[in-house]
């Protein structure tokens, strides 16, 4: 009972946020119910859900993909193109996008899962890169090339347009995060979910038991990709346009950063990682232009202007000293101890 | 015919650079099981060290200035690669995923740092004039840097082969790629060769960076990453851990990219390379090295 009550209570509490006009100094730029703050919170929640969809692959199935951005970008670009270039209605565009995302995940997943481990990582990276190149090439003038393009807001539902409706988008993003959480929880506890975790632990043993890891890995891949595609549609509504940033390899790498920072193979960890990372990424940018930083000598100021530098360094520190991610920070002492004592020969025999 | 010849030589030149980047990646992976995502950073660091040195040597004539800057760039690449291995990879032995994660973090943060210091705009590198001129062969005007790229890659290929086949260290590296546990059991500390392999990989990537600045005459923070993505494709097509497979795959990828870009449509070359990768994976998931090596 408690396992359901806690997430539900959190969702209800978060759903009430737009109702409060409280000012939270330093943490946010404005009051809690201002469009700016709600937009940032909505982005955080959306990335929390997206990070969890990535963790389904990486943390729960043990598949290191460098191409998750591709399926997110499908959500952003296909929906935007269908509405803006072909003038389809919102729901038609959503259905079509889901179909494209599904088929692409099945086909590319089936090909790239023919190799495993690091080769799988490289192959997914290559496919995502193909998507990125295609978007930059701007076929038929659909994708807008390097600049991206704004979605035709006439096709969007009325509740999703305008600054006044930011609270609706916030609820939508909250709904997405909650749905991803519930779906991942259900999937991981289902019988294929147990096989996924068994594959992560020892794929050979799963094979010896007479199960085909390939089919199960493909299931996990397609589900994670579909969740990412859904996230892409939410992102499109939140930002009102498509940009090339979401197609790049760096985008997938930031997802990896979120998941590892928060804690792999843990639903709360991935989600909190995504939320904190997005928050830090945006607020550090504001911080670097603030008065306190601009008076610093340039040796300190220059690195602070790039949030990715700080987050990248933090990421390396977490990998070294907090292997379970920030949600398992209690184990720091143990790990430090292990690093400081010179390790005995612990070469693994494979 | 002259166009075909130009495309072929340019494709080979491109393949040469892919080989230089991919050979280091492939060796590091083969021996240590580490996918070195920071390989692109080796390229970026070399290119910026080269550009920085050049900009500091204002009064020196172009050719010696470029050579000095290139040597400085290569030294920086080797030192940076060695430090990466010693500081970041070494404490995480046997934990492959964590090692990959650390190189990802390094790649992102160094790229961000370079962007913060020198901006994201491209910087112009002054190349010696001979490199920018063309040589005419059978009616085709071939830019001279192509010969330099192909020649250097051939020298590096033979150098690597000689190192791996004729020296004691090469023997340990090759044996380590085959079966690391067995080499350790024979009383040889394989880990010493890890730093060496990283330095070789860093040197090869540095040479690729110098050649690439000659080829494009500009540098920017993202260049290394984009070059490394094609190197990844080359490594997978060639078969992980095989130098000869990597060389063949680099030539094929370079040529396919050039031909498709010219004969089909510009930009299609990159996509056809990914398509090629898909076909190789379906037909022969282990890569080409099964055939060639």
Textual characterization of the structure:
The complex is a heterodimer of chains A (350) and B (293). Chain A has 350 residues and is mainly alpha-helical. Chain A has 15 helices and two strands. In chain A, 43% of the residues are buried. Chain A is globular. In chain A, helix 2 runs parallel beside helix 6 (166-189) and helix 10 crosses helix 11. Chain B is mainly α and 293 residues long. In chain B, strand 2 and strand 3 (140-143) form a beta hairpin. The chains are: A mainly alpha (350), B mainly alpha (293).
Outline the biggest β-sheet of chain B: 2 strands, antiparallel
- Portion in beta strands of chain A: under 5%
> Which structural category do the helix and sheet elements of chain A fall into?
mainly alpha
From the alpha carbons, calculate the radius of gyration of chain B and give it in angstroms. Answer: 19 Å
Number of strand segments of chain A: 2
Low-confidence stretches of chain B: none
């Amino acid at each position: 009972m408690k396992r359901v009550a806690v997430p539900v209570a959190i969702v209800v509490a978060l759903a009430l946020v737009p109702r409060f006009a409280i000012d939270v100094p330093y943490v946010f730029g404005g009051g809690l119910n201002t469009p700016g703050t709600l937009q940032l919170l909505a982005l955080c929640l959306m990335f929390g859900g997206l990070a969890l969809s990535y963790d389904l692959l990486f943390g729960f199935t043990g598949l290191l993909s460098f191409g998750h951005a591709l399926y997110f970008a499908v959500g952003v670009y296909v929906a935007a193109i269908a509405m803006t270039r072909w003038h389809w209605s919102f729901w038609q565009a959503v259905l079509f996008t889901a179909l494209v995302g599904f088929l692409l995940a099945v086909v590319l997943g089936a090909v790239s899962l023919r190799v495993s481990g690091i080769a799988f990582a490289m192959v997914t990276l290559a496919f995502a890169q193909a998507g990125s190149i295609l978007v930059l090439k701007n076929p038929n003038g659909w994708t807008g090339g390097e600049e991206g393009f704004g979605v035709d807001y006439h096709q969007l539902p009325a509740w999703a347009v305008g600054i006044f409706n930011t609270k609706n988008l916030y609820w939508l993003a909250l709904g997405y995060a909650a749905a991803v959480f519930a779906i991942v929880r259900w999937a991981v506890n289902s019988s294929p979910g147990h096989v996924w975790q068994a594959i992560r632990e020892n794929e050979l043993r799963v094979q010896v038991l007479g199960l085909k890891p390939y089919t199960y890995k493909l299931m996990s891949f397609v589900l994670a990709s579909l969740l990412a595609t859904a996230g892409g549609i939410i992102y499109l509504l939140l930002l009102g346009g498509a940009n090339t940033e979401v197609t790049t390899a760096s985008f997938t790498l930031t997802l990896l950063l979120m998941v590892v920072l928060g804690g792999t193979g843990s639903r709360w960890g991935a989600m909190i990682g995504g939320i904190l990372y997005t928050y830090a990424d945006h607020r550090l940018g504001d911080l670097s232009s603030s008065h306190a930083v601009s008076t610093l000598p340039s040796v300190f100021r220059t690195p602070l202007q790039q949030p990715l530098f700080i987050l990248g360094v933090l990421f390396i520190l977490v990998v070294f000293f907090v292997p379970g991610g920030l949600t398992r920070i209690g184990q720091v002492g143990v790990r430090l101890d292990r690093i400081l004592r010179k390790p005995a020969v612990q070469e693994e025999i494979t | 015919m002259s166009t075909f010849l130009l495309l072929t030589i340019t494709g080979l030149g491109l393949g040469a650079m892919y080989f230089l980047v991919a050979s280091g990646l492939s060796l590091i992976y083969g021996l240590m099981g580490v996918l070195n995502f920071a390989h692109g950073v080796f390229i970026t660091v070399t290119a910026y060290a080269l550009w920085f040195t050049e900009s500091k040597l204002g009064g020196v004539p172009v050719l010696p200035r470029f050579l000095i800057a290139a040597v400085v760039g290569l030294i920086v690449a080797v030192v940076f690669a060695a430090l990466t291995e010693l500081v970041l990879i070494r404490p995480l032995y046997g934990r492959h995923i964590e090692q990959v994660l650390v190189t990802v973090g390094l790649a992102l943060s160094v790229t961000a740092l370079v962007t913060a210091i020198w901006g994201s705009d491209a910087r112009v590198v002054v190349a010696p004039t001979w490199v920018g001129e063309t040589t005419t062969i059978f009616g085709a005007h071939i830019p001279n840097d192509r010969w330099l790229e192909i020649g250097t890659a051939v020298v590096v290929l033979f150098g690597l082969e000689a190192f791996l086949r004729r020296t004691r260290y090469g023997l340990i590296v090759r044996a380590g790629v085959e079966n690391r546990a067995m080499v350790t059991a024979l009383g040889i500390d394989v880990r010493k060769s890890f730093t060496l392999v990283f330095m070789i990989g860093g040197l090869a990537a540095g040479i690729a960076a110098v050649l690439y600045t000659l080829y494009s005459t500009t540098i920017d923070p993202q260049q290394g990453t984009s070059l490394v993505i094609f190197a990844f494709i080359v490594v997978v097509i060639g078969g992980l851990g095989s130098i000869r497979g990597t060389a063949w795959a680099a030539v094929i990828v370079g040529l396919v990219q050039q031909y498709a870009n010219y004969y089909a449509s510009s930009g299609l070359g990159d996509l056809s390379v990914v398509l090629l990768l898909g076909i190789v994976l379906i037909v022969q998931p282990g890569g080409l090295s099964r055939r060639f090596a």
